[in-house]
Design a protein that fits this description.
The complex is a heterotetramer, with 2 copies of chain A and 2 copies of chain B. By secondary structure, chain A is α/β, with parallel strands linked by helices. Chain A folds into 3 domains: about 190 residues, Pyruvate-ferredoxin Oxidoreductase, domain 3, CATH 3.40.920.10; about 280 residues, Thiamin diphosphate (ThDP)-binding fold, Pyr/PP domains (Rossmann fold); about 140 residues, Rossmann fold. Helices cover about 35% and strands about 15% of the residues of chain A. Chain A contains 21 helices and 21 strands. In chain A, strand 5, helix 3 and strand 6 form a beta-alpha-beta unit. In chain A, helix 5 crosses helix 7. The longest helix of chain A has 17 residues. By secondary structure, chain B is an alpha/beta fold. Chain B is built from 11 helices and 9 strands. In chain B, strands 2-1-3-4-6-5-8-7 form an 8-stranded mixed beta sheet, with helices on both faces. Classes of the chains: A alpha/beta, B alpha/beta. One iron/sulfur cluster binds next to loops of chain D.
């Protein structure tokens, strides 16, 4: 059954157990072992409501090429015990082709699991662990699963050192002994189903999306972080705390999110690129501050590792439902950047890009990660650096000479943009690209006061209509005039010619849904369909013309994990979708599966008497009938 | 420790050419003038100074100076100033604002800035009213003040005691000044700027427009705050009665005593959870990336 | 020149002067006088940056029928002096048909004013005031203007008592003497140009939009208010403070907006309808709390008296730029109500309706007033009560009997919706209309815990996908299933038949822009155009079908005062507009004038080579080229 | 004044059947138990009680009771409770939460609830850590605690002193309890509920998971807080040294003294700016509308 999950030759395994059973540790060792033998993989985890020590499940998918989502189903489940297993029923997705390894000593297979029709194979995890001094059932499971997955024993043992490294040597030895026992007992272990080893040069990284986001901040030369802990964003901050210090920078734990975002603005005003991370409730508290960053033209990046909403919502589970707030959540017209990474590794790329764009454009950037990216651990190829972006447009501070000359240039682009006026420096002077030079405190001759009140070019508060218009259009223009290059989206056109055929389907998505959508694309193509997938990385400003060109003439399905079709509505607001475009949106917290997307396309084959004109007068209700739950009407 | 007479000669050099929007007779004029005097006395170059404020009449100060400045959000001057100082310890960072800005909406940041005891000077121009929004009660308004339409019977709530809260929260320097005494005030501000920790200067700064009668009495009522016994020991709560200014602050403060109310050495070394210099950023990044292979 | 401003026979006059000159007092007396003789009117005011005592202008428009906007131009300006008059140039809108009354003693007419071509008539306000002991120039101006406007002297004198009532009698007498002097000197006063007196029964009210909003809260039986002062919302609270007490209720000044919104939730949880008022920065701070009200199904109403944005923005000036935040500003999918009053009096109607809808639907309502409504004083017909809305669906608390019976009914609709379960009361039980009975603390047997975490029907936190979907769809369903009746919009179809002709133009707008749009409609009709105007009062949930029907087959122009066309984009997001729909959006702070709307329609006559297909592939850029400033791209 | 032995008989009647998510050994179990004991002792009917909380392990309390309850937003328990009590003075309103919830993000509301001195009982389960978000430093964490990955060198900031802040802010009742002493704690909670003003109960409630070693020492370290001298006079700041518990709180509090630390009569009559009963609402409305004609 293994390697047959799909044409990608991947396998999905799960380890479940009650508090203290070590299901997650088992998962981490398997993932690290996959990394060690040139495979790719990812691991999601799910836990019950207990703060600590409750039941939990690790679900891993491992494959020979990049694994971007958890797949449709679980091939193999190792159940260490059955405590509260029904909580994970939906996540586990067992079926008649699955195999369940369980310990008879833990009781009968629960009816919910049995109902899946999965093959049941009792393995006495507990008894075999007891053979080793300090041995534990979860390590027997690692051995068994590793064998079934074709992971060589040595890789498992090395991975054990890497994962348990900080534990007492005796515990590590006991774990290794159990793993060997488990591995030896599997047929797979004996039939030498070793995966093809990847080229030695191709190093794989193992990290979570939160760590990748932290890495992106380091790559962007961020020098200041202030944040308030919140699930599921805290790990990004915890990853960064020691590393930012090594790279050179300051991290502050703020008293709340209001403080955090304003601290960022202070540091950035001081010339130091600044980032924070939060989740929905914190993002709500930051909106006033983000608006100040926009109006005062002080660059900041806010990473939202989204969880299920509304309100306190589902703190440990994922949903893509903060898009509305990220796009539209500021009072007044407050143009800013919104970006979203498309997979775990892309968190590094997109955070770096987002921070650099914010710096260049002197604005706030909101980056939408989510729990499904942030808390997923993956084995990936090292993610690329973001495209080059010019740095903050500054003023020359090197010499008194520069000041006598009143010359202003930028450390990075050398353009002379403005001259120091006799009186006050015109911090907000209009310019061709909408970007005004931004001196940092400490530079003589350019003293200015930043302001969140409507202001004139000098930054002096002004309520005149003309100043307001001038500054507003400067804020908008600098964002739209910038050339974002090709990174605005990932487009997978497969082997198709440049001009798409009329019968082509475009699967349009964003953020963590990309993986499943892209896999659906591949599978559909293999079934002969003409499909392309587009994952938007830059959500605002929308790259209207590029997107139009990319989807021109195709049938568009917009895929996302939220109840109201937030991306679909946004693209309609921007008038970029054809009237025939449809929405597939459903709430979280379950991760999107490729098969769901494929099933939607089946559902969406043009039906002659469809809902095209059901409402009066030429309007279109398209998409609404296709969404999960009753999401008609207008929110 | 007390600075000599402050020469007012170059104070005006710190003023921008933006005309204050303040009502004639507003106390905040005196504070602005005292601040420029203090800066001149300290001979701080204006480009090395950043003045950060929230929103309110009092919070307009930054634009009236020609230092670097930030006129931020209502209530958020302190976090903005904290972020700036943490990222740029080389700058002299001064936060200014009002009693509404600092003690009502900004109360949490006040608490935590005192605790953090970061090297900032925070000047609150307390007129016991919201001037900018046209005369509502602030936390420092007496409970029986009935002139605001929003609280026609008075707030009924005892006035907030900024110095006591600052003390309990851990500020290492607390002083009180009066806007009608710009010389005394400028001395206090200068000392606050020199103090290497969180220095809170509570300034009685009358609102001519919304508290005309109530606050004209301040001129008669203010008095020196006991002697300036300066202790470098710990703060009041751990100090036996009678031994320090801190205790005086608890037992003798009527809210009108002027001078330095409390001054101790800063209690901690750092304000940041982690902070590092940057010898070779790329090398550090490479090493961090290499760890991801393990 | 008077009465000839337009076919509505209205007149617009302005009084300007420096700090202390009493221009606003003059305006208030003129408005009160208009009220006293059966006229309608409104008065806007504008002031310089000074906190108090700076220059200011009162602009009044008075007419024989309802006055909904300030009109296109100023007929008559009385300048008490010229200090900083250039600040008001844009607002004053003088032209060659205007008349400027000025005092030669105050210096020459400034070039900016003279350039308008207005007739200049020197009047020695100062000298004539000095003839009276304690006389002031502004009162001479009241007399002169009153005469020019055809207001009888007695009405002016009565109005003076009403407005100056609290001043010393000597001051009031001096004012009256000056007014008589001023009035006597006008020709109008002598030619008995008395306006036709309105029927005695028809009483006129004089109040601001903020006061009307306060009245709406009283009508809605609101019993709790907590708020933090902010311009331009404070006056609503200040109006309410003494009156809520009279009507029976509690008002609290909160330490900040975070506290205010959570206090509301507490009071409402206690069974007491609760309202707050704020403006953009405060609304930003309230978004987290509003989300809690949505998720915990605790009714609250938040009135946003919007000012110019972004950030601290233009605190004393108007803009309709908080629509995005009101619609989309909450994290997660958080369905709620968004409403906007259409004129000063409609603030009473819409606040009452919004509060009652929130109560009925157990959700948060955001009401978008703005500075142009809130701080405008108007003489109007008493606004109607909102349509009947059933009250909160409660439980019976009258007797132990009811409890033994486990019967639940509502004080208002008597339906038996749910029975007390053996264990915990199912506060969030699904029901046909999506509304679950909400008991107030104090009622035995229905104890429950409200929660902002995802929860099951009992309110117990749950992260299961099925509970999440069930509760989310309940939140959405209760809003869409409700029958909002006809109040969702004001539609002015004029004399047209029910089915609009193909050549008909629909002017679609919301909030404070309604007045100018509606007047433009009337004028265009008189020019022979087929025009209807639609002012949306209920913005979310959008009444998709009704709106579709109303605009079916017409050419739609969406009019609003913000830079990015927020309503236009929202309606596109909801796919309710035809592809030919266009946007006229420009930023504030200047009020919308009917002539601007008319000019836009001229601009928008179909141009053969229009921008219909300029971007690739069937997408439409419609509207963008028509907006003020450069608002392309996607925010 | 001290209530007699609290009968624990009916305490469990106040428990719902929702199973706590707390880790085995968590201090919060003791607080829950003490709270139910206090409610049983006071014989308050459960439908007349509302328990309001924020977010955190400690904030889960409302769902574990079968009173009315609200599990609100992180840091906002006090305003929610204030709104409820102001609108429904007939109810017994209790707010519960943690040190992060109450002193970090909720610090401003703590200040102003103390000032307002509204009749609430506020129980903070202080474990000097953010339990729910997996072990970060809270305001009451000692500066040298290095176990959080977010502050690997410790926060470097002296711990927040809840009782001192409450006193300086005007709370009229301050007590400290220990979760491992549910009887003593239930007595304190009962007194706090009876106190007609803002009653703050600071509870040392160890986090077994994230502070296991540090907090096991509490058992040895706690001790009674001097005598319970109850003064109905004014609060510490206006009181001569040696005269009242308040002064003791300033000079003797090591953060581990248990008992009532401060208790005075509530200082003001009302918490609301305006409040009125409703004899004939329609008549009032008619009169108000009539005024608009003038
Ligand atoms: C979030 C937010 N809430 C409210 C306001 C409105 N506001 C502006 S200034 C101010 C009070 C100012 O009072 P204070 O700080 O005492 O300064 P003063 O004007 O008295 O000098 C308020 C409430 C705002 N700008 N932002
Ligand atoms: C606005 C917001 N910020 C952050 C969080 C994340 N959060 C939840 S509980 C908590 C801290 C809880 O600590 P404490 O109040 O001390 O309670 P404990 O868990 O220790 O009992 C935090 C930071 C949140 N839910 N909302
Ligand atoms: S309102 Fe008061 S505080 Fe504001 S400028 Fe005028 S006098 Fe000063
Ligand atoms: S994490 Fe700590 S505070 Fe939270 S339940 Fe566990 S022991 Fe208690
Ligand atoms: Mg003030
Ligand atoms: Mg805690």
């Amino acid at each position: 059954m293994i390697w047959q999950n799909d044409n990608q030759q991947s396998i999905t395994v799960a380890v479940s157990g009650s508090g203290g059973s070590g299901a997650l540790t088992a998962g981490f060792i398997l993932l690290a072992a996959a990394q060690r033998c040139g495979r790719y993989g990812l691991m999601m985890r799910s836990a019950g409501p207990q703060v600590r020590g409750g039941e939990s499940v690790a679900i891993l998918r491992i494959g020979p090429s990049t694994v971007t989502n958890i797949g449709d189903r679980v091939d193999l489940l190792a159940a260490l015990d059955w405590r509260n297993i029904e909580r994970f029923q939906d996540e586990l997705a067992l079926d008649a082709n699955s195999l369940v390894l369980h310990d008879n000593a833990a009781g009968a297979v629960p009816s919910g699991i049995a109902a899946s029709g999965a093959e049941q194979r009792p393995i006495d995890f507990g008894r075999r662990a007891a053979e080793h001094n300090g041995g534990r059932a979860n390590m027997i499971a690692v051995g068994v699963l590793g064998g079934e997955m074709g992971l060589p024993l040595q890789a498992l043992l090395d991975a054990t050192d890497a994962v348990l490294g900080k534990k007492a040597p005796a515990a590590v030895d006991a774990a290794k002994a159990c793993i060997a026992t488990g591995h030896g007992g599997t047929t797979a272990g004996q039939t030498e189903r070793e995966p093809s080893t990847a080229p030695a040069a191709a190093k794989r990284w193992r990290l979570s999306g939160n760590a990748a986001a932290g890495l992106g901040a380091l790559r962007a030369e961020v020098g200041f972080i202030a944040a308030y802990p919140i699930t599921p964003a805290s790990e990004m901050l915890e990853w960064l705390a020691p590393r930012l210090e090594r790279a050179g920078g300051t991290l502050l734990q703020a008293e709340d999110e209001l403080a955090a975002v304003n601290m960022l603005i202070g540091a950035s005003f001081g010339g130091v690129p600044a980032v924070t991370a939060t989740s929905g409730p914190g993002l709500s508290l930051m909106t006033e501050g983000i608006g100040l960053a926009v109006a005062s033209e002080t660059p900041i990046l806010v990473v939202d590792v989204a969880r299920g909403g509304p309100s306190t919502g589902l703190p440990t589970k994922s949903e893509q439902a903060d898009l509305n707030q990220a796009l539209y959540g500021l009072h007044g017209d407050a143009p800013h950047l919104v970006l979203a990474p498309l997979d775990v590794g892309d968190c590094a790329f997109t955070v770096e890009w987002g921070s650099r764009l914010a710096e260049r454009l002197q604005t706030a950037a909101i980056l939408l990660s989510d729990q499904a990216l942030g808390q997923t651990h993956a084995v990936i190829d090292p993610p690329p650096r973001c495209p080059p972006v010019l740095g903050r447009k500054g003023v020359s501070a090197t010499s008194a000479q520069a000041l006598t000359d009143n010359a202003i240039d930028s450390a990075t682009d050398r353009a002379i943009d403005s001259a120091k006026p006799a009186n006050a420096f015109a911090r907000y002077a209009p310019s061709a690209d909408g970007i005004s030079p931004m001196p940092s405190p400490g530079i003589p001759g350019f003293e200015y006061t930043a302001d969140g009140l409507a202001h004139n070019a000098q930054g002096t508060p002004s309520s005149s209509a003309s100043d307001h218009r001038e500054q507003l259009s400067k804020l908008m223009h600098k964002l739209t005039a910038h050339d974002y290059g090709d990174a605005w989206a990932r487009i997978d056109r497969g082997q198709l010619a440049d001009e798409p055929a009329d019968s082509m389907i475009s699967l349009l998505t964003w953020g963590s849904s990309w993986g499943a959508v892209q896999e659906a694309t591949t599978r559909l193509r293999e079934q002969g369909a003409q499909v392309q997938s587009i994952g938007l990385r830059l959500l605002a400003p929308l790259q209207h013309d590029q997107l139009s060109r990319a989807i021109a003439g195709t049938q568009v399905l917009v895929v996302e994990i939220n109840a109201t079709g937030q991306l679909f509505r946004y693209l309609n607001a921007e008038r970029v979708l054809p009237p025939s475009a449809r929405s597939f949106a459903r709430p979280g917290p379950l991760p999107l599966r490729p098969a769901e997307v494929i099933a939607q396309l089946r559902l969406q084959r043009p039906q002659p008497d469809a809902d095209e004109n059901q409402a009066g007068g030429g309007d279109e209700h398209a998409g609404e009938s296709l969404q999960a739950a009753d999401v008609g009407g207008g929110y | 420790m007390a600075p000599a007479m402050i020469p007012s000669l170059r104070a005006r050099d710190y003023l921008s050419d933006v005309k204050p929007i303040w009502c004639p007779g507003c106390g905040h004029f005196g504070v602005l003038s005292a601040l420029t005097k203090a800066l001149a006395y300290l001979e701080r170059p204006k480009h090395e100074i950043a003045v950060i404020s929230g929103i309110g009449c009092s919070s307009r100060v930054p634009a009236y100076l020609n230092c670097y400045g930030f006129h931020g959000l209502h209530g958020r001057a302190l976090p903005l100033a904290t972020g700036l100082k943490a990222a740029r310890p080389d700058l002299t960072v001064i936060a200014t604002g009002g009693d509404g800005d600092g003690f009502s909406i900004g109360g949490n940041h006040f608490l935590h800035a005192c605790r953090r005891d970061i090297d900032l000077c925070y000047i609150v121009m307390d007129n016991a009213v919201y001037g900018m929004t046209k005369g509502q009660a602030s936390p420092t308004t007496p409970p029986d003040w009935t002139q605001s339409a929003l609280t026609p019977h008075g707030t009924g709530i005892p006035a907030f005691r900024p110095a006591a809260i600052a003390l309990a929260s851990g500020a290492s320097f607390i002083a009180r000044g009066f806007s009608a005494d710009p010389h005394g005030l400028s001395e206090l501000i200068a000392r606050a700027i020199l103090h290497p920790g969180f220095a809170f200067v509570h300034v009685l700064s009358p609102c001519r427009t919304y508290r005309p009668d109530d606050q004209s009495s301040w001129k008669q009522a203010v008095h020196p705050f006991g002697e300036h016994i300066l202790s470098t020991a710990e703060t009041a709560v751990d100090t036996p009665p009678g031994a320090s200014t801190s205790t005086k602050l608890h037992v003798q403060d009527d809210g009108l005593g002027l001078g330095v109310l409390h001054e101790v050495a800063r209690s901690q070394a750092s304000t940041s959870a982690t902070a590092g210099a940057n010898p070779d950023r790329q090398a550090a990044l490479d090493a961090i990336e290499a760890e991801l292979e393990a």
